Amino acid sequence: MATYVLVAGAWHGSWCWVEVARMLEAAGHRVLTPNLLGTEAEDEPETTEPLHRWAEQIAEIVRQEVDEVVLVGHSRAGLVISEVAERVPEKIDLLVYLAAYLLQDGQTLNDWAQRAHNADAMTNAVAFHSDGTCTIKPEILEKIFCNRTSAHFIDFARARTVPEPIAAFMSPIQISHERFSSVRLGYIECLQDQAIPLDMQKAMQAPFPNVMTEKLDCDHSPFFSMPHELVSALERFRRAE
Q: Which is nearest to 222 in space by CA: 17, 59, 10?
């Protein structure tokens, strides 16, 4: 059996993995769903170097595991898991990018987001605040993130989203060919994604010729809209040679 570490994307927390974690645990796996520093409702947001601090946080969790882990990052968490792989490649069996930002060294999330055809829509979906954070507008959540998700889970998500530090979008990742490229990569494309368009998901994979790819006919939130299929895709990656 495997150890899965599941890292949520912007405005989300461990709560988004509830169905996926339950299914993986039922199959006998160990599952960790850490909340990133500053992303719980009662926390002060990590507005200074959040990407660096999150990568250090998750790397330390991975270091404590006896066996190699399958490290999964959704959306913005793609940046986090890339930096974790740079720190502890020997402890990671597989990196899985779930409709996530798979960036090259020195790139930022904003570099890619601003070139997407939905850049204006995404900017309008976010409320920016003077404390260095931003929030996803509740009335936009369904249209952008959950366009194939049941009303129950949309309400569940609306009640739990938290502020995101704007600095996370502007921080360049720091990875090297020697360390990052030694880890197996998998990418799960979400075909009906309105947050990270499919053409951008494909473009981010292009510089990484050895990336394995799975496709789900779902929105940006497959942990809600297609949890069974998501778990199956994760397991196929894990078993691949």
A: 17
Contact 72, 98 (CB under 8 A): yes
- Assess contact for 101 and 79: CB atoms under 8 A: yes
Run of H or E residues at 70: strand 69-74
The Cβ of residue 93 has, within 10 Å, a number of other Cβ atoms equal to 15
- Residue 2 near residue 72, CB atoms below 8 Å: no
Q: What is the pTM of this model?
A: 0.97
pLDDT tens, position by position, 161-209: 999 999 999 999 999 999 999 999 999 999 999 999 999 999 999 999 9
Q: What contacts 24+ positions apart, CB below 8 Å, involve 28-34? A: 28/1, 29/1, 29/2, 29/3, 29/4, 30/1, 30/2, 30/3, 30/4, 31/3, 31/4, 31/6, 32/3, 32/4, 32/5, 32/6, 32/61, 33/5, 33/6, 33/8, 34/5, 34/7, 34/58, 34/61
The CATH number corresponding to 3-239 among 1.10.730.10, 3.40.50.1820, 1.25.40.10, 2.40.10.10 equals: 3.40.50.1820
